[in-house]
Amino acid sequence: MRLQTRLILLIGTLLFAVIVALTFSFERLLITTLEKSIGASALKLAKAVAEMDVIQNAFEEEDPSAIIQPVVEEIRLETDAEYIVIGNREGIRYAHPLADRIGKEMVGGDNGPVLKGMSIISKAIGSMGPSLRGKTPIYNDKNEIIGIVSVGILMKDIEISAQSYRNRVLFFAGIALILGCGGAIWISSSVKRSIHGLEPKEIGLLYQEKRAILETIHEGIIAVNREGIVTLANHTAMMLIDPKERRVITGQYVQDVIPGTRLLEVMQSGVAEKDQEMVINDHAVVVNRLPIYDHEHRIVGAVSSFRNKSELLRLTEELTQVKRYTEALRAQTHEYSNKLYTIYGLIQLESYQEAMDLITHETDVHQNLIQFLLQEIPDPIIGGILIGKFNRGSELKVKVEIDRSSSFKDIPGHISRNQLVAIIGNLIDNAMEAALGSKPENRWVSVKLHDKGNQLMIEVSDSGSGIAEAGTDRLFERGYSTKGERNRGFGLSIVNGAVQQLHGTIACHNSPAGGAVFTVKIPKTGGNIHDSGRNH
């Protein structure tokens, strides 16, 4: 059964039961009130008749009925009483609306208390049917009870009076029921709209799907309402915020959970913040913050997604490494194609000696480089990036020199090779780009790698124009480029991030020849090394 139908039936049934109960209660109260009012009026009339001198004196006459009947009948006709009956102590009637019943015994069996001096209101079945009676004794001058006055209203007359009121109550009850059913339909339709026409099972399924999706996302996600109370947090978020206790943070104030968060500012301004960096529980994270709008475009909360910066850096490094390998293969293919065409041309010109000299030279250069790398830089990942950059430099007509005093054998296992590749590759790329700005005959990049002592040292210098003093402070800022072009300024930012992850330092200065020199020092034990150069 659909939710809307169930709501209508539930509200309609409840409303019907309440209205029916109230209607019967009111009817019962109305009849009780009528009986009390009519009974009190009948008793009052009975007392008035009992106190009439003509009635009291008539009991001393030989034929009391001849005097009492006309008087009582006149009173009955002027009032709403169905009957007024007067009898003596023995219950013999002296007055009755039906003359043939005068002289006969009163019926109903409720004269006992009256003969004891009590005035009562009772229900009894008399000679005219069920009735509500008011009875009181008649006293003589000596204060002796000499008779009984009974004023009665037939129950059917009371029922007729109650019926008119009951019809009105039922009329208004019907109107209330119709309005209530209309309200039930409106409420159910409103509820249906507020839940976007979904059924409870569909809502439950969506909730389960949402929870499953949130838990499979590697990013931490936190949502807050307008008051800044956390309404949603997935497992990744709780692990980043409190990895030890893993406490439930929903229902808490967001500033108590993440001190310094800007979610409240985002709600105030309505402006999204993307790729912002902050520290959560000693973890550097990259954060995105967006306001949440309702269907009326009012801000009702905000949501934040964040991911460990080291994970993003690792992904960036992997993509960068793939790109470097691709560029290296392309450069190598291009370079060797040119050399093969040159050798092919020399052979066609029958310049065999020149062809052999070129082959020998190229073989010696590459063989010497490979032999040197195998001996001094045995790590295949670092050796591979150096060969790739060497070939890339040959394609760009930039001489990439690897200092023959370099040695990079003692690399601790805990130091990520991907991070070292990110540092070396981006520094060489940056240096080759700078070298392209110098004269063609003076384009070179020099690379030195050392592993002596308790630290690793990487030094890359170039023949470029050097570092402008005005841009030194922003050199490692993400997206900043001295060339002022878009989609640039990421290489040195990646280098700086990798260095920080390895607890190292990076320094830069201009060489006397005018080019830039970048020096990276990484502790082998994971501690901090203080450098005398400019730290970033």
Question: What this model shows, in words?
Answer:
The protein has 536 residues and is an alpha+beta fold. The chain has 14 helices and 15 strands. It has helices spanning 3-50, 53-58, 64-78, 112-115, 155-194, 200-216, 235-241, 254-257, 263-269, 309-348, 352-376, 380-396, 417-435, 491-501, and strands at residues 83-88, 93-95, 120-126, 129-139, 145-154, 220-225, 230-233, 273-280, 283-293, 299-308, 399-402, 444-450, 455-462, 505-510, 516-523. The strands form three sheets. It has a five-stranded antiparallel β-sheet. The longest helix has 48 residues, at 3-50. Mean pLDDT is 79; it is low at 484-488 and 527-536.
Contiguous uncertain segments of 5+ residues:
484-488, 527-536
Please give the share of residues in helix. Answer: 40-55%
Strand order of the largest sheet: 2-1-5-4-3
Please describe the biggest sheet, giving its number of strands, its sense, and whether it closes into a barrel. Answer: 5 strands, antiparallel
| Shape assignment | rod-shaped
> How large is the share of residues in beta strands?
15-25%
Tally the beta strands: 15
Radius of gyration: 54 Å
Mean pLDDT, nearest integer? 79
Measured between the Cα atoms of the first and last residue, the distance is: 66 Å
Structural class: alpha+beta
- Tally of contiguous helical segments: 14
Give the ordered list of helices and strands: HHHEEHEEEHHEEHHHEEEHHHEHEEHEE
